[in-house]
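Predict structure. Chain length: 101.
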Amino acid sequence: MQLHRFKGKISELGAHISGVLSKAKVTIPTGGATKALSNLQKSVDSFQTKSMDNAIQGLGTKFEHFGIVAVTAIATLTNQAVQYGEKFLSSYVQPMKDWFG
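Prediction complete.
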């Protein structure tokens, strides 16, 4: 019920403002607003995301390459760690072999 009264008051206010404006012979220019909306619509229609798409695809490609480099680096480090581990163990095992040998 309150909402109905509120809508009625807004309608009365709109009618009052319209009456005051017409008595004062004031018109609200709409040509500028129409032109502005038309220009805005043209801008929206001409907006293209192709350059943004290309940039994102380029960034994705760089991340793919970075992933390949990272996997290669991890594989190399792992291989070196295994080699050093073998050398470390053989340096302790070989003297024992020689002593028992």
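Summary: The longest helix spans residues 50-100.
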